[in-house]
Amino acid sequence: MAQSHLLDAPMKLLLESGLYLVATPIGNLGDFSPRGVRTLSACDLILAEDTRVTKRLMGLHGVTGRVVRCDEAATASGLAAALAVLDAGGAVAFCSDAGTPGVSDPGERLAQGVIAAGHRVLAVPGASAALAALTVSGLPSAQFFFAGFAPAKAGARASFLQEVAGIAATLIFYESGPRLADSLAAMVKVLGDRPACVARELTKLYEETRRGRLSELADFYAQSGAPRGEIVVVVGGHSAQAPTRETADLDAILSAALTQHSVKDAAAAIALETGLPRKDVYRRALELIAEMRQAVP
After folding, report:
1. Element (DSSP H or E) covering residue 173
2. Do 101 and 22 meet the contact criterion of CB atoms below 8 Å apart?
3. Do the beta carbons of residue 281 and residue 264 sit within 8 Å?
4. Shortest CA distance to 238 belongs to which of 275, 292, 289?
5. Is 89 helix (H, G, I), strand (E, B) or coil?
6. pLDDT per residue as tens digits for the range 172-229
7. Which of 7, 50, 165, 175 pairs with 269 at a CA distance of 20 to 30 A?
8. How far is residue 227's CA from residue 162's CA, in Å, rounded to a whole number?
9. Residue 183 belongs to what H/E stretch?
């Protein structure tokens, strides 16, 4: 079926068959786009991460239609419902709780399943918490890396942070209030004391943007308690890391560690301690060993 993607199209569109990933407001309901309203009005099926949230948004704009739950636990059944409509030539929309679908929500798996079945996936863009936080953070935005949610357990979180520690681009994380202080403290330990921004409740009544070094932010939220709402943490890339005593004394620390551990184990332990990228510590360890061997007559 042909589709004209025109802004001045009538309220009831004849949509091309496909899955429409419809971005919804992250707070301010005025951010929902006219095209988003029209798309929901014209779809044969609307999949929602939270049916209550989506139905409320639909009600505000006079949109009616069939709404089916499609959260993490119901992605498989949601995909099956979508494919039944798509196979018949219909159109399906997916809305996450807030923001752009497919980013840390079931939209990713849903889109993959639809693509694998040979159907189209189309974007109806709009609000995104990650991009909103990046733009107000004051940190470099030409290059950025979206890391999503870090694992909840301390060991897994440290390993996760270690994997992104060497990335020069600005880092973007999602976080929850109860975990925020511990997460920021872990970032200080693994990433180093970099410039950062905690953006909370973006576009909402109690929006808060707090900037500073990771250590300052970790101390603040450790003392003030867990904040409410949706939280994005934006952190400067590897080049923004503040010099530390551990960095300056790396050769001395490595030399001592290499007398007791293998190169691999020494590099892993020191990378975790100093927040330096493991590959850089490992490379420096190999250089030190080569220098020591050359010094032996």
Report:
1. strand 170-175
2. yes
3. no
4. 275
5. coil
6. 999 999 999 999 999 999 999 999 999 999 999 999 999 999 999 999 999 998 999 8
7. 175
8. 26
9. helix 180-191
